[in-house]
Amino acid sequence: PILLIGLALQYAELEPVSVEYDGDRDALEALWDAQATETLVKVRQDVTRHRYGDEAHLDTTVKALGLVTTEYPQLRYLQLSQQDDNLQFAMVFSSPDTPFYDWVDEKRVEKYKTFFGPGVDADVIKVDKDKRLVAIRLTIL
Q1: Phi, psi torsion values for 99, nearest 5 degrees
Q2: For residues 133 and 19, what is the distance between their CA atoms, to the nearest angstrom?
Q3: How far apart are CA 35 and CA 87, in angstroms?
Q4: Strand pairing of 51-52 and 13-14?
Q5: What is the pTM of this model?
Q6: Could you tell me which residues come within 8 angstroms of residue 85 by beta carbon, excluding any fewer than 6 positions away?
Q7: Continuous segment of H or E residues that includes residue 7
Q8: Nearest C-alpha neighbor of 91 from the set 141, 40, 50
Q9: Nearest residue to 38 (alpha-carbon basis) of 108, 120, 109, 93
Q10: Please, is 113 exposed, middle or buried when counting C-beta atoms within 10 Å of its C-beta (0-12, 13-18, 19+)?
Q11: What does DSSP say about strands 18-21 and 74-83: parallel, antiparallel, or unpaired?
Q12: Long-range CB contacts for residues 121-127, cutoff 8 Å, separation at least 24
């Protein structure tokens, strides 16, 4: 029975996602410490640890945002960067089933701002067309 429980947990395990840096890691982490909102801190803590029993990292989030068609988009990594003096926090998803135009819908982009806000602006980036990678990028205001 213990083996079966272990196998079931392993099957239902979601590996933590990595954090990538577009720039100097230490400088971006200092900017993170200074500017990250409570919501973004919670997102980062949630997705950079092991999860069990969920369909995908942020599964309820992408569902609430209307981004689930047949399969959940899969969070692949987070990326920290800087624009001027503002922190940027990107969540990069593999999205083979949700078309890019769904991600960039103007009303949905406005919803990203309120969902992950307050105090953030949002845009969507096509990271890799062939791999169907898309990012929601949040800029701290």
Answers
A1: -65, 150
A2: 16
A3: 7
A4: antiparallel
A5: 0.89
A6: none
A7: helix 2-11
A8: 40
A9: 120
A10: middle
A11: parallel
A12: 124/100, 125/90, 126/100, 127/92
Query: pLDDT tens-digit profile of 46-99?
Result: 999 877 666 677 888 999 999 998 888 999 999 999 999 999 999 999 999 999
Sole residue written with tokens 């309820």:
60
Query: Helix, strand or coil for residue 138?
Result: strand
CA distance 67 to 103: 7
The letter for the amino acid at 140 is: I
86 vs 70: CA distance, rounded Å: 36
Say which amino acid occupies 126. K
Tokens of 48: 């950079």
For residue 47, the one-letter residue type is: V
Length of the chain: 141
Structure tokens at 87: 């922190």
Whether the bond into 118 is cis, omega within 30 of 0: yes
